[in-house]
Amino acid sequence: GESKPPSTEAPSNNDNIEGQKPEEVEPTPTPPIIDTSPNTLDIDFAALAEKETNSKLKDMHEYFNQVSPTLKNEYTGMFEGYNLIFLTAEGFSPWAVHKELTPTLYKLINEGFVFNNFYTPLWWASTIDGEYVATTSLIPKSGTISYTQSANNFMPFAFGNQFAKLGYSTRAYHNHTYTYYDRHISYPNMGYDYKGVGNGLNVTKVWPESDLEMMEETIPEYIKDHPFHTYYMTVSGHMNYTFAGNSMSTKNRAEVDHLAYSDESKAYIACNIELDKALEKLLKELEENDLADKTVIALSAEHYPYGLDKKHIDELAGHEVEENFELYKNNFILWSASIEEPIVVDKASSSLDIIPTLSNLFGLDYDSRLFIGQDILSDSDPLVVFSNRSFITDKIMYNSRTGKVTNLTEEEVSKEYIEKMNNIVQYKFLISENILDLDYYSHIGIK
Question: Which of 127, 191, 268, 388 is 20 to 30 Å from 227 by CA-CA measure?
Answer without folding.
Answer: 127
